[in-house]
Here is the input.
Amino acid sequence: MSQAIQRAAQLHQQGQLDEAETLYTAILSTQPGHFDALHLLGVLRFQRGRNAEALDLIRAALNLEPNAVAALSNIGLVHAKLNQPERALASYDKALAVKPDYAEALYNRGLALIALDRAEEALASCDKALALKPGYIEALYTRGNVLMNLKRPKEALASYDKVLAATPDFAEALGNRGLALIDLDRHEEALASCDKALAFRPNFAEGHYNRSIALVNLGRLREALASDDKALALKPDFAEAHCNRGVVLHALEHVADALTSFDEALAQKPGYAVALYNRGNALIDLQRSAEALASYDKALALKPDFAELLCNRGLALAELKRPQEALASYDRAIALKPRHAEARYGRSLCLLLQGDYVRGWREYEWRWESKRTLRDKRSFAQPLWLGDENLTGRTILLHFDQGYGDTIQFCRYAKLVACRGARVLLEVQPALRSLISSIDRSVRVTATGDALPEFDYHCPLMRLPLAFKTSLDTIPATCPYLFAAPENRHRWQERLGVSAKPRIGLVWAGNPRSGDAAANRMDRQRSVTFDQLAPLFESTHGDFYSLQKGDDAIAQLQDSVHRRRVADWTDDLHDFADTAALIENLDLIITVDTAVAHLAGALGKPFWLLNRFNTCWRWLLDREDSPWYPTARIFRQPSQGDWTSVIASVAIALRQWSDAFAGARPLRQPGAST
Here is the structure.
């Protein structure tokens, strides 16, 4: 190498790029075919971000020396920077054909393979580089990243730990180590690793983002949101941080704001399947299921093997009342992950909705693995009874496993179990104990928290349809099967006094489980506001009585201009037995899909159900009646969210019912028998 090129290379190495460039250019002005000047000037232009010029210069050098391994490797770097990974890979392969032990080319080859989504080959290339150069920090770090992509977090963690043993202040390795620990469910350690990364580099946007993910998994959502905001302040085009911010906002039930974050993520990264998936989830909660489905379908085109996406796509189709298509989507998710509990649970609801009880009850067992209902699962030393064992002379504990309405609907099976010769112990929620004690003398009713006597078998209430192989034709539908206590019924009769007017009970809102996002979403879909019921007050001169519990819903009544049309004595309804006694003195119950619907049906009282479009499975499809409750009449939304049509139909029916009712009931004196 001539003295001039040596001097230029020395200046280049010292970072004096202007001086080096001047010397390279001077050499090429007199020696246009100078390999080193062409090659090194190309490298310098690459360093300055002038990639097209760099490419031309290094190509010119390679035309002179086609097997120059350094130039072959460096032109690979330029191709990689120009987002041409196939060409980069070809360049590295040419370099390695000349020099198989070229560790740097092997490492860079691994980066090109990552860009081509060929993770296994990338891992092999990094491993070869490390076999030649065991302390190669960049290769160790990249190896950890590849292992994360391959869902091998334990091995990735080991790779990051080797990096950090040599370079403890490597912020990227600390941050990605946090991600590996998150995947291993070691969230406190993950947070500590991210915090350490940020101690070394406070303005590390990716570190703040990784920290947010750890905080989400620790349930510290407000702190997670603050971390995402810090990441985005440092890097406003950080699509992943926008997406994670949306996930946090969704979990905090700021769903409209979450949607905005997902849209921003997609503006930065249009082909971002995870953001499209989460956007669909937000749209589901906003009752925009058709848009959710479109978002899921876009994500699916990008990531066809995304089981969680297929599962939630099934939910969107179910909410659009397209159960056959929903089943197909759930089936695709299950084909990818046979033990995908959420998909199997969703599949069971579609089967039950269509009246396919044979397959539906069996698949419904997957709810015990679903995050939505796993918390309801209980364990006992005694064996589970599912209909096979002889119960004669044995004691069986039947216990509730979901909400009040479920307990009321399925407690009817207790008498059937007693008919098998069993001593039946029925455990229910405390608010139901008094009411359900009326079911049958053969059933002993206890409440949660009471000491349990010895028993031989147990069975959750909602497993009993499976145990009895219930089909649509064999539903035990004899009603009433629950009864208000006579003294309570008479007390309410005296309080209501004498009237020939029809008495109508109203429930307009549900009572969501606190902290349960799915229940909150369902409650928003099934509930109306009190003022939406106004057309009913114009349809009859009957007397209306509130059966509504819950502070927010009761406040709607108290603040309404129609409040004088409705008597509200719900402060005196201390449990379901009190509510049952009041209902026994009414003529008709109009209710959204809450436990009161089941209570009215179990009492044999006529009730009209205001039913959402994406109906609960127990009300089946497109029926105005219910095989579970002979006194039910169902009014269904014609489209998602359309309560106006439902209430208009109920108002017409109520007018007709009131006209037919007029004069049909004699005046009742206080204290008289009913």
